[in-house]
Each structure stands twice: as C-alpha cells, then as structure tokens.
Amino acid sequence: MKVRAAVLHEIGAPAPYAQSRPLTIETVDLDPPGEGEVLISIKAAGLCHSDLSVINGARPRPVPMVLGHEASGIVTGIGPGIDDLAVGDHVVLVFVPSCGHCVPCAEGRPALCEPGAAANTQGTLITGARRLHLKGNDIHHHLGVSAFADQAVVSRNSVVKINKHISFEDAALFGCAVITGVGAVLNTARVKGGESVAVIGLGGVGLNALLGARLAGACKIIAIDLLDKKLVLAQELGATHVINAREPGCAEHVRHITQGGVDHAFEMSGSIPALELAWEITRRGGETITAGLPHPGKRLAIPPVQLVGEERTLRGSYLGSCVPVRDIPSYIDLFQSNRLPVEKLKSDYIRIEHINEAFDKLSAGEAIRQIIVF
C-alpha cells in the first residue's frame, strides 16, 4: 500500500530545519503485515528529542529512515500468528520490541531486550524485516515504529492495547515521554514518600519525572532547567522549588534546600554538564539516575572514591525500566483519574507537512510535546 511518511535521507543537516528541510514528506510503499506483525493506522505521534538526536547526528542511525517512535493508533490489519488483537483495537506503540525469551526479558526487564536492541540499531523490525520501501529500495524503521507516517507495520511486540476512552493525542504520550519519565521515578528509583528529588532538564521526559515524583509523594521536588518558562510550568505541575541552571551556585542552592543534597537526582536532558550537576547535588548514600541519551562519544568523569566512601549510586534508566503491557494501562488509569495530568505537557497539534518547523521549536526549547495529528 502507499503511505505518506516523513523520510530522513541524511543526518546532520544544519538548523534551522525550516530551511535545510532534513525530513521530506514522500509517498512510500508499505508491505502488508507478516507473521507476528500488525498494520496500524497512526492517529497521533509526538515529536521527541530522540527523533531530533537522529536528525542532528547525536544518536546515529542508518538512513534513509522514517522517524517517529511515540504514537497511538488503530489496528487495521493483522498478520498470521496473532490471536490477541482485533481490527479496531486502540493501541500505543512502544519503541523497544521485546522478544519475551532473552535473559533480560525472562528477568522481567523487557526494556533491555537483546534482539529488540539489535533490531533498533539496525533499523529493522524485531524479525529483521523492513516493510518500508521507496523506489524499490528499503527504508529503515525507527525503533521498530516509524510513526511519522499515516500507516505503519510493526511487530506485535511493539504495541500495547489500551481502552478507547482516551484520546489518541493523549494516548501517544504514553509511548515514550510518560513511561520514560514516570517510570524512571517509580520503577528505576522507586522513590518513596517523604524523599527529596531533583529533575534536571524539563522536556517531555523530565516533566513526566516531576509528575512521577509528585505521584510518589516526594516531599521536595526541585526542578532545574536553563529556560525560565519551563520552570514556571514545573511549578504549576508541582515542583516545590525551581532553579535556573545558569544561576551562580546552583548546586550549593540545592544542597542548602535539602541539607546536604537530594535522595534522587534525575538527569533528563542528555547533557554531560547536566549529569555532572546531578551527581554534584546527590546526597551521601543517594542515587543519581540518567535517562538522557548524549552522543555515544561523550564521557563522564566522576571521583570513584565517592562511590565507595559515600555509598553513592549512578544508574541508567531506559524506557523507565517499564514493563509496557503492565505500566502503560496503569499510567493511563492514573491519568484518567486525574492523578497524572500529562495533558498539560502538550504544546501544539501540527500537520506532518510542518514537521521541520516543529523540530526547530523543539530544538530551541520552545515546545514540550508537539503532536502530529493524522
């Protein structure tokens, strides 16, 4: 079938993207779903820094590629071997397909699925297939999803069925921003009531971490960013303190507020200076967690003696350490009971034709979550 998609042919195009236009809207060929695959009519897709990182080269991926990994839609076709989905089901797409059989999956850590990670790196579905083509040539899939298109063929392992009482625009957020941010707090850190939290980097993931900290009952929630308007939004969402990272003595300010540092510091921007700040403001015995994805060539230098002498912990969090089939419906329930107000993070609804201009806004920090509506 023919579908309209945003195709990235080369990485590293210079900003502004409204001029260099790294993404081109093209009609591409999409194969029908194969064994264990489903056809999804994409209804909404969020623009995320992980997409931007492919465009600017910070997260190298094979090209040409149809980007997009945070989305919701309707099942419109089912391949052989699937008996637990039906045409008409509403779903959220997940950017790590989990095989269910490798060691991490068997341990209940599907975010670390080994075949899923290999497929994502290679730009294929988890089966190794590529279902997208342009003029007879294969196009790579982005994280097994490629949601910047009006239709997508994905692995059954890349979708989670949801209830039909949530809008597609809201549901899309649960495919990445919500599970990554909220999950980092609830699953990776297991924040307890009364603990202190700092969140550095207030994009879609960082603000969801803030919402997760509020949900967990953290007593102090310190929001840190370079942009004052994001700090204003953080206060509206429940931050008890906000600090501009450019402020002289930022780390000292946090240590003063918390009498020595926070129990959990979350770095959510993919910036090494931000991660260094997170480490600096973590208390003795505390935990520094990063869900940011800097360029693979970047390195972090910390004093190893602190790991031992202060019993410090430095942890990564991918996909919020979530089990998507468990956590996405659970987080949607929290949203629908007004305990997780993620709808406040939506900045704009856009058409796919305006995607390059939208990535300029994201790059400049002028938007939290812009949603492409199909």
Question: Would you write up a description of this structure?
Answer:
It is a single chain. The chain is an alpha/beta fold and 374 residues long. Helix content is 29%, strand content 27%. The protein contains 13 helices and 18 strands. Strands 3, 5, 6, 9, 10, 17 and 18 form a seven-stranded mixed β-sheet that branches. Helix 6 (177-189) crosses helix 7. The longest helix has 13 residues, at 177-189.
User: What fraction of residues sit in β-strands?
Assistant: 25-35%
- Tell me the CATH topology of the largest domain: Quinone Oxidoreductase, Chain A, domain 1
Contiguous low-pLDDT stretches (5 residues minimum) are none
Helical content stands at 25-40%
**Total strands:** 18
Shape: globular
How many H/I helical runs? 13
Which CATH class of the largest domain applies here? Alpha Beta
CATH architecture of the largest domain: Alpha-Beta Complex
Helix/strand structural class: alpha/beta
CATH superfamily of the largest domain: Medium-chain alcohol dehydrogenases, catalytic domain
Report how far the terminal alpha carbons are from each other: 17 Å
Keywords:
2 domains, Quinone Oxidoreductase, Chain A, domain 1, seven-stranded mixed β-sheet, 374 residues, six-stranded parallel β-sheet, Rossmann fold, alpha/beta
A few lines on this structure:
With 374 residues, the protein is of the alpha/beta class.
SSE layout:
Layout: E1 2-8, H1 17-20, E2 23-30, E3 37-46, H2 49-55, E4 65-66, E5 70-78, E6 90-93, H3 103-106, H4 114-122, E7 132-134, E8 137-141, E9 151-155, E10 159-162, H5 168-172, H6 177-189, E11 196-200, H7 204-216, E12 220-225, H8 228-236, E13 241-244, H9 250-258, E14 262-267, H10 272-280, E15 282-290, H11 304-309, E16 313-316, H12 324-336, E17 346-350, H13 355-363, E18 369-373
Parallel strand pairs: 4-8, 11-12, 11-14, 12-13, 14-15, 15-16, 17-18
Antiparallel strand pairs: 1-2, 1-4, 2-7, 3-5, 3-9, 3-18, 5-6, 6-10, 7-8
Helix pairs in contact: 6-7
